[in-house]
Design goal:
alpha+beta, 3-stranded antiparallel β-sheet
Length: about 250
């Protein structure tokens, strides 16, 4: 909740924290209670809700695959591979879980599916790189919808992987929304201070819109979505991803 306040997350917006684990949270006025994820009253607006998804496999998992396909073990080499494959990855989809996953409850293990939907044992390095990054973005979009967050107007990225603009470009393309990065490395502590100030103002008797307390000065635009990619390429892939995910062994 304090991270929501620290990032200034508004109605219809979402944030992704990409660290050791990955966390997605968004603000919605149409929450969908589900066995996946969590729903809370918004910490800054009593008429809205905060929806959250937690993933166990985050940056350590990305490092694992990066080290397998990049002899240099360098992110610059990984980004070069990522950009060699086209948006949509020719229809190839990968699931990468170094550990058993939370969202959804998948058993540990990697699974790769060719464009025809058949499982395959190995991808070329450039396909593997894009399958890793697109796969997580597709999962975020799919499961965010299941708890009431769809078509965010913008996505705010935090955490270590948010320094990688190539990863954030994929996020922008899949969601069809601009991606911003936060300059503050501790949005939770900042948000706690904002919430204290906001609460003090509201204690006077009337609710004060949080926008009067917080602005977006600490954010900068990192990636704009490729025009039409979300609708033409990634929306069909979300459905395909969901169908393939259902075939995997669950905990």
């Amino acid at each position: 909740p304090c991270s929501v306040a620290g990032l200034g997350l508004g109605s219809g917006e979402a944030a992704v924290s990409m660290g050791t684990s990955d966390t997605f949270f968004g603000i919605t006025d149409t929450p969908v209670p589900s066995t996946e994820g969590h729903l809370f009253v918004s910490p800054v607006n009593p008429d809205e809700f905060m929806a959250m998804l937690c993933y166990k496999n985050g940056s350590l998992n990305r490092e694992r695959i990066k080290d397998q396909i990049c002899p240099s073990r360098d992110w610059a080499e990984f980004n070069s591979l990522l950009n060699k494959a086209p948006l949509g990855n020719h229809g190839n989809i990968g699931f990468y879980n170094g550990e058993s996953e939370i969202t959804p409850g998948l058993k540990a293990g990697d699974a790769r599916f060719a464009a025809n939907g058949n499982m395959t044992g190995k991808f070329p390095p450039e396909i593997e790189a894009r399958a890793l990054i697109e796969g997580k973005a597709l999962s975020l979009k799919l499961h965010a919808r299941s708890i009431g967050v769809s078509s965010p107007t913008r996505v705010i990225a935090t955490g270590g992987a948010s320094a990688n603009t190539e990863i954030l470009q994929v996020m922008a393309d899949v969601f069809g929304a601009p991606v911003y990065a936060a300059e503050s490395t501790d949005s939770a502590s900042l948000g706690a201070a904002y919430r204290a100030h906001h609460g003090h103002l509201c204690a006077a008797g009337e609710f004060v819109p949080f926008e009067q307390v917080h602005n977006s000065d600490g954010l900068h635009l990192v990636a704009e979505p490729t025009c039409g990619a979300a609708e033409a390429i990634y929306d069909p892939l979300v459905k395909k991803y969901a169908d393939l995910e259902a075939t995997l062994p669950h905990n």
